[in-house]
Amino acid sequence: MPTLSEQITQQLRDWISQGKLPPGARLEEIPVAQQLGVSRTPVRSALQMLSAEGLIEHRPNRGYTIKEFNLEEIMSAYEARAALEAAACRKAALNGVSTEMAQQLRQCLIVGDGLLAKGRLTPQQELSYQQMNMDLHRLLAQAARSPQVQKYIEHINNAVPQASSRVMRWELDLGILRRSHDDHHRIVAAVLERDAHRAQQLMEEHVYFAGLLFRQSYLQQAAQHAAQQGQKKAPQLRR
């Protein structure tokens, strides 16, 4: 069972990946401890862990701030994740999966189908879908039975959370989410049918597509921010 500091570390990672703690935002022990209802000691340990991972930065007299990744760094992380998760699916298909693992993978698909069948998702359903997505990707990585591959995937997810399977773009229309979940069905089918080449190819395309969606969203937000800044700087005409 994770320690309290490890639980806090994961909670902060989730907030960063979800945009609740934006790049450049300050992280202070006391406000975080008060928000989570814990003492400062485990929060301090969590911040030190995140700093060691490079996810937050410590600056003299300023404390900790969320690291700002540029688009190139995030897209590089997506590329690495695509290659690693594709390799994991290939190995899983080659090795074959246990009956228990197959049942868990199918259960993830059933959960996703049920949520997307409801139409527009509520905030709670969004969290349930996000958890399903994380579970499915984690199970596929485990199915490879390669501790090293699993370790590298986990490292990318933690080091650059914007490129992890924890990130969901809820502003997308439901059709795109359904397409993504259709990918899940095809990937799982290829793994269970032991079609290693197809499993590898499908997962690589799946993560690559997620990266393209992130890039599109990132550039749109950057353009909106630039437009807002331009409006603020524009001279006001006197009446």
From TrEMBL:
<feature type="domain" description="HTH gntR-type">
    <location>
        <begin position="2"/>
        <end position="69"/>
    </location>
</feature>
<keyword id="KW-0805">Transcription regulation</keyword>
<dbReference type="Pfam" id="PF00392">
    <property type="entry name" value="GntR"/>
</dbReference>
<dbReference type="GO" id="GO:0003700">
    <property type="term" value="F:DNA-binding transcription factor activity"/>
</dbReference>
<dbReference type="InterPro" id="IPR008920">
    <property type="entry name" value="TF_FadR/GntR_C"/>
</dbReference>
<dbReference type="InterPro" id="IPR036388">
    <property type="entry name" value="WH-like_DNA-bd_sf"/>
</dbReference>
<dbReference type="Pfam" id="PF07729">
    <property type="entry name" value="FCD"/>
</dbReference>
<keyword id="KW-0238">DNA-binding</keyword>
<dbReference type="InterPro" id="IPR000524">
    <property type="entry name" value="Tscrpt_reg_HTH_GntR"/>
</dbReference>
<dbReference type="InterPro" id="IPR036390">
    <property type="entry name" value="WH_DNA-bd_sf"/>
</dbReference>
<dbReference type="InterPro" id="IPR011711">
    <property type="entry name" value="GntR_C"/>
</dbReference>
<keyword id="KW-0804">Transcription</keyword>
<protein>
    <submittedName>
        <fullName>GntR family transcriptional regulator</fullName>
    </submittedName>
</protein>
<dbReference type="GO" id="GO:0003677">
    <property type="term" value="F:DNA binding"/>
</dbReference>
